[in-house]
Write a sequence for this structure.
C-alpha cells in the first residue's frame, strides 16, 4: 500500500512525509478551513506539500501562515517556492530570520570536527526567503486555537518547538529526533550541541499527547513519558 501524502496525527493536524519518516513537515487546519504549514523540507519538497493539501481537501489559496522551526536546508529548502505559490511570507524565530533572508545556514558547532569542516564550506544552500513574523519565545500564534512557540536554541540560534494545545500535538523540530528511538541530532549539525541538549529539557515540562518529530515517526502512545524518559536517562545533559 502506498504511503498517503498526509498522515493524520489529531483532528486538524497532519504530518507531511517528505522522505518516508526520515523528514517531515506538518499541516494544521482551522475550523474555517485556513491552513498553517510548518517546515517545508528540501528544495524538491513543494510538490509533496501540494499533494498533502489536496489530500486533506485544501489548496494553496487556503494557506494563511507558514512557520519554520529553524533555517536549515532540510526544513527551509522548499520555503521560497511554497511562499511564492501561496503568497505568504515565512515566520521564523528572530535569531534565525537573517539566515533565512540570506539563504544561509547558521554556523555549526566549532567544538565538533565535522562542524568546523562544514563552517568552511559555502553557506548559500537554499533560496533566500522573505520573512514575515519574527517569532519569540512564548508567542501564541493564531493557529487553530493557538500554536505556542517554545524557543529551544542550540540546533540553531533560533530553533523552536511548537505546541498545539487544542490537539495535544507537540512538534519538536530538531530539538529531538525519533530515529531508532528518541535521541539527539548529530552534534555537527548544531550551532551549539550542548545548548541544544540543555534546552530540549523544556519539552519535558509541556503537556501533550502526541510527539511529532521532523525526523522520525510520531509517538502517539505515552508520548510525554517517552520524551521525559529519554531526557531523564543518566548522562543526558540537563539544564545548568
Amino acid at each position: 500500500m502506498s504511503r498517503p501524502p498526509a498522515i493524520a496525527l489529531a483532528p486538524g493536524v497532519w504530518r507531511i512525509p517528505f522522505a518516508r519518516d526520515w523528514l517531515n513537515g506538518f499541516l494544521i487546519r482551522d475550523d474555517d478551513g485556513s491552513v498553517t504549514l510548518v517546515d517545508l523540507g528540501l528544495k524538491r519538497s513543494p510538490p509533496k506539500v501540494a499533494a498533502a493539501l489536496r489530500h486533506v481537501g485544501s489548496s494553496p489559496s487556503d494557506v494563511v501562515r507558514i512557520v519554520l522551526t529553524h533555517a536549515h536546508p532540510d526544513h527551509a529548502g522548499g520555503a521560497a517556492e511554497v511562499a511564492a505559490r501561496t503568497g505568504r511570507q515565512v515566520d521564523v524565530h528572530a535569531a534565525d530570520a537573517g539566515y533565512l533572508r540570506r539563504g544561509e545556514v547558521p554556523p555549526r558547532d566549532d567544538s565538533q570536527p565535522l562542524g568546523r569542516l562544514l563552517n568552511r564550506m559555502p553557506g548559500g544552500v537554499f533560496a533566500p526567503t522573505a520573512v514575515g513574523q519574527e517569532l519569540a519565545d512564548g508567542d501564541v500564534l493564531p493557529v487553530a486555537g493557538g500554536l505556542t512557540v517554545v524557543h529551544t536554541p542550540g540546533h540553531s540560534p533560533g530553533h523552536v518547538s511548537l505546541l498545539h494545545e487544542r490537539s495535544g500535538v507537540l512538534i519538536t523540530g530538531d530539538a529531538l529526533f525519533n530515529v531508532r528511538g528518541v535521541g539527539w541530532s548529530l552534534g555537527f549539525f548544531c550551532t551549539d550541541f550542548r545548548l541544544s541538549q540543555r534546552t530540549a529539557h523544556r519539552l519535558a515540562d509541556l503537556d501533550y499527547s502526541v510527539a511529532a518529530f521532523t525526523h522520525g515517526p510520531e509517538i502517539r502512545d505515552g508520548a510525554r513519558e517517552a520524551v521525559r524518559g529519554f531526557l531523564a536517562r543518566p548522562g543526558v545533559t540537563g539544564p545548568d
Summary: Residues 65 and 88 are 7 Å apart (CA to CA).
